[in-house]
Amino acid sequence: MDHFHREKPSIYRYDTSFTFGKGKGHFYLDTGKKEQVLGLYYEWEGEDWVASQLSSLAQEMTGLPYGTLPSLKGERFPIALMLYRRFVVEIQESFIPWAKLKGRDPLNLLCRCFGVYKEDIHELVGSGVVLHSLRDLGDHLQAGIGCGTCKEDLKEELAPLIPHPIESKEPVNDQSLWEKLDPQTLASEFHTLLRQFQGENNEYGVLKLGGTRPGSVLVSVEKSLGSEQRAELKERLKKVCDKTLGPGLEIVFLSY
């Protein structure tokens, strides 16, 4: 059975271990600006129905502030919700972010890949460095050169600090539609695309969305395919994806 975000992510802000019955698991919570959930991930060793509830919860939490718990929808995954509620309490009552230990507010973190805060940018400009573009900022602090999801926040922070329009030295780079979508909306749009594709290409068996990562989507393939047929599937699906959501989105295939 396919499960959403049943894995340990490469980047996360909070984590905790938990148990239920004879099973044991681990939550990994990745949050962005204003503590919005970029991804709730989990590992679980135990009964599969618990994993199904955790999968449903992970999908519902994407895009919400981490402390906003699903109410009516939560009736479908009560055990997962109970475990996650304990996690939230642990974060709010006992978890001290490393940024706060260093005297920094984690809400002022702009570039998560390289740990660049608002204060770093203001200190750089205050030291006499003149910035004209995001590229200049990247040269000095590496901000914005990783996954790229922070670029809009960086532009907003830089706008009043520089003498010229921020785009003056930026290369022309039109964003694809998928780059403008939040993780939850991207998952919804790709799920719809996948259903339409499968209706017209049923020779590949059942295809399901297995989750999203920065710059990529995960697709589970139920049917055992040879290398040539898998390559053909990837090429066809990529063409449809590029046409519908724009180029640049990587498609990663998983097996059930």
Give a description of the structure:
With 256 residues, this protein is α+β, with helices and mostly antiparallel strands. The chain has three domains: 14-95, Sufe protein. Chain: A (Alpha-Beta Complex); 101-169, Orthogonal Bundle (Arc Repressor Mutant, subunit A); 179-255, DnaA, N-terminal domain (GMP Synthetase, Chain A, domain 3), CATH 3.30.300. Helices cover 38% and strands 19% of the residues. The protein contains eight helices and eight strands; from the N terminus they run βββαααββααααββαβ. The protein has helices at residues 48-61, 78-94, 98-101, 118-126, 134-141, 151-158, 183-200, 227-245; strands spanning 14-20, 23-31, 37-45, 109-111, 116-117, 207-213, 216-221, 250-255. The strands form three sheets. It has a three-stranded antiparallel sheet with strand order 1-2-3, covered by helices on one side. A hairpin with a 2-residue loop joins strand 6 and strand 7. The longest helix has 19 residues, at 227-245. It is flat. It starts with 13 loop residues before the first strand and ends with a strand.
Do you know the CATH topology of the largest domain?
Answer: Sufe protein. Chain: A
Classify the beta-strand content into a percent band. Answer: 15-25%
**H and E order:** EEEHHHEEHHHHEEHE
- Under CATH at level 1, the class of the largest domain stands as Alpha Beta
Mass-distribution shape: flat
**How many individual helices?**
8
The number of distinct structural domains comes to 3
The appropriate CATH architecture of the largest domain is Alpha-Beta Complex
Share of helix, binned: 25-40%
**Mean of pLDDT:** 80
The number of strands is 8
Low-confidence stretches: 96-101, 166-173
